[in-house]
Amino acid sequence: MRSSPFRVLRGARPGFPRRTVRATLVLAVTAGLATVVPAAATQAVASGSARATATSAATTDDAASGLAAKPYMGWSSWSMQSSQYPGLNPDGNYSYLTEANVLKQTDALAATLKPYGYNYVNIDAGWWMDKNWTSEFDQYGRQTPDPVRFPDGMKSVADHIHSKGLKAGIYLPVGLEKGAYGDGKVPVHDAPGCTTADVVYPDLRTTNGWDSAYKLDFDNPCAQKYIDSQAQMLADWGYDFLKLDGVGPGSSKSGDNYNNVPDVAAWHQAIAGTGRPIHLELSWSLDRGHAADWKKYSNGWRIDTDVECYCNTLVTWENSVNDRWNDAPAWSHVAGPGGWNDLDAIDVGNGTMDGLTNAERQSYMTLWAINKSPLFTGDDLTELDSYGLSLLTNQEVIAVDQSDSPVARPVTPMGDQQVWGTKNANGTYTVALFNLGGSPASVTADWASFGFTGAASVRDLWNHRNLGTYKNKITATLPAHGSRLFTVKSAGTTLATTRYEAESTDNTLAGNASVAACDACSGGKKVGNLYLDSKLQFNDITVKKDGIYTVTIAYVSGDPRSVTVYSNSGNGTSLKFPSTGDWSTVDTVSVPLALKAGSNTVTFDSGWDYSPDIDRIDVPKSA
Q1: What is the CB neighbour count within 10 angstroms for residue 147?
Q2: Residue pair 33/591 in contact by the 8 Å Cβ criterion
Q3: How far is 326 from 304, CA to CA, in rounded Å?
Q4: Could you say which of 161, 310, 423, 455 would form a disulfide bridge with 11 (CB–CB 3.0 to 4.6 Å)?
Q5: At a CB cut-off of 8 Å and minimum separation 6, what does 470 contact?
Q6: Whole-number Å distance between alpha carbons of 315 and 309
Q7: Strand, coil or helix: what is 4?
Q8: Buried b / exposed e across 464-474, counting CB within 10 Å, b at 16+?
Q9: What is the largest CA-CA distance in the chain?
C-alpha cells in the first residue's frame, strides 16, 4: 500500500522538514586568552524518563558481545542524497539513492577502505519511497522497498554487501508512519487481533522530528508487536545496523509526544528477540538529559544536527562542521564500549565535492577521532582524491578513534584557539591543537594543562613523524581552521600545585554568589549563583616569584557558560567554559594568569550573564 505523498521542502529530508541548524557564536582569542560573546543561560536539568524505566526491554551486554565495542566505521548514502552537487541527483532531489549506486559504493568501499576498518554500508532515508517520495508499505504496515530504486529488493542488496565481507545498514523513522496506518485496520504481522489502530493513541497524536508518524502507545502490547515485526523483517533481510531517525527528546522537539525513549526500548527488545545482532544508532540531536536511556537501549546517538549543508557541496565549514567543537564536550563522559557519541558523517574524501579546504578536512577528521565518533564517510568512494584518501586511511589517527582511551575534552576555554586532549591507557597523552579562526594563528599546549611539567617527546600523527623533545609546552602556527594531532610522552615530573577551594571562608563572595553542596566536588561544595554582576574572589593565592602560571579551574556547568577571570587588579578576559554535560559533573580547564611573588587574588566575575559554578583552582608551585 502507498501513503499520500509528503510535501517536500527545499533542502529537506524527503518527507521531513530540514533539521534546524543553530547559529554558531564567533569566538576570538588575543594573546592566548579567549574573548567570548557570552552564551545565553539556561537551567538545563533533565531527568530520565519514568516511562522508560517501566518499559520492558531485553538486557544484553552489547560491548561484551562485540557489538559496538569500538566506534563503527563505514559509508552512508545520506550526504550524497542530500547534496545539490552537480550530477549527484540527476533525477530530482534525493534521487541518488538507488540499488545500483549502493552496490557501486559497496564495491568501492571493499576495494579502498575495508583494509583500514571501514566495514558498514548504510542505506539512509528513501529506500521505501518512489521518485516522488510516495512511501510504500506491505500488507502489515511495514516499509517495503521501492521497486524502481531497489528492483532486487533489500535482501539482495544485503547479500551483496555481505559477499564483500562488509556489514549492511538500513534506516527507519521512529513511530508508525502516517501512510502505514491505512484505515486503522491494517493487521500487524504475527500478532493476531492487532491492527494499526491498536498500536497508536486514539487521538492519532504525531511524533518524531518531522511529525510524519503517529506516536506508538506501548500500554497496548500490539505496539511492541509492531516493532517486533519491523525488526524481524530487517533481520530476515540480513541487516546488521539500523539508524532510527527523528528520535526525541531531541530532533528539535520536546514534550510528551516526542518522548521516544519507550520506542528505543521497544526496538532494543525487538532486536534481541530476532536473535540477530543489529547495531541500533539513534538520530538526531539527542537530548543530553536522557543520555542514560540512549546508552541503556542503543549503540550510538547523534549529538548534533545534520553535518550536511544541503547545498552545492556535501558540507561547509560554517554549516555545520564547526558546530561540533561547541557541542561535543557535553557528551564526553557518556561514550564507551557498547555505545558512542555520533558526530555524523566525515565528508573529507574529496575537497571539491566536500566543499572544504585541506586544513578544514584535517581538522574535521581530527575532532571526530579524538571524540571517538563513528567514522563513516558520505563521499563518493569512486572519486576520492589523494589527500582525502590519506586522511581516511591514516592508521595512527584511526587508532586514536578506536583505542580504549577516554574521549578527549578541551583543556582550554572555548575560543578560536583551542587545545583538546586525554590521557591514554599507556600513560601517554593525545593532544590536539585547533585554530578555528579565519586567519593563521599560533596555538600552544602547556604540559601543565595535562598535569606534568618538564620534557616530553612528541609524535605528529598526521605526518607520521617523531618531532623530538619539547620542554613544558608545544606551540604550532596553524592555518585558518587548521589543526595538529600529537601523541605526547612525558619524561618530566608530576606538576606540583596548591589547591584552593571555592567555598573557603578565606574567599570573598559578592552579589548572588553563594556556597552550595556538590557531591562530585572536592570538599563536597562549590560556589554557584554567579550571575547578574556576582563575583567569587580567591584570596591569598601565594607563589614564590613573579610569572605566568597555568591555573587549572575545576567547575560545573550543564551548558557552555562564560566568566571573566583575572588576577589581582587586572581587567580580565571573558572565557567560555565547555559544558560538563550536567550539573553534577566536574571538569577542568586551564588558563594562564599573571601572578606576583607573595599574595595574590584570583577573581571570577559573572558580569551580567550566567557563569559556571566553581569548585576549586589548582595553582602550580612554580611558573
Answers
A1: 11
A2: yes
A3: 10
A4: 310
A5: 455, 456, 457, 458
A6: 5
A7: coil
A8: eeeeeebeeeb
A9: 82
Q: In Å, what is the CA distance from 317 to each residue of 115, 351, 355?
A: 29, 12, 8
Count CB atoms within 10 A of the CB of residue 124. Answer: 24
At 24 the pLDDT is 30
One-letter identity of residue 193:
G
d(CA 577, CA 510): 21
Q: What is the layout of strands, in order, in the sheet containing 598-605?
A: 508-510, 535-543, 598-605, 561-567, 573-577
Residues 6+ apart with CB under 8 A from 226: 141, 176, 188, 191, 194, 196, 199, 216
Domains of the chain: 46-407 (3.20.20.70), 410-494 (2.60.40.1180), 497-620 (2.60.120.260)
SS3 18: coil
Helical (H) or strand (E) element with 294: helix 291-297
Q: Which residue bears the cell 566575575? A: 605
d(CA 476, CA 474): 7
Prior bond to 284 cis, omega within 30? yes
Task: For residue 50, give the C-alpha cell.
Answer: 519514568
Nearest to 503 by CA among 620, 616, 588: 616
How far apart are alpha carbons 320 and 347 in whole angstroms? 12
What does the block give as the cell for 526? 562549590
Closest to 10 in 3D by CA, of 67, 109, 89, 107: 89
CA 475 to chain centre: 28
How far is residue 584's CA from residue 582's CA, in Å, rounded to a whole number?
6
To 10 degrees, what angle do helices 221-237 and 153-163 make?
A: 50
Q: Name the DSSP class of 105.
A: H
Reduced to 3 states, what is the DSSP secondary structure of residue 2? strand
Across 329-451, the runs of DSSP E, i.e. the strands, are: 340-342, 375-377, 409-410, 417-423, 429-435, 441-446
Q: What is the DSSP string of 544-611?
A: SS-EEEEEEEEEE-SS-EEEEEEETT---EEEEEPP-SSTT--EEEEEEEEE-SEEEEEEEE-TTSB-
Q: pTM of the predicted model, to two decimals?
A: 0.91
Q: Are 49 and 293 in contact (CB under 8 A)?
A: yes
Reported as type and span, the H/E element at residue 222 is helix 221-237
In this prediction, the residues of the chain whose per-residue pLDDT falls under 70 are: 1-65
Which tens digits make up the pLDDT trace of 422-444? Answer: 999 999 999 999 999 999 999 99
CA pair distance 525, 512, nearest whole angstrom: 16
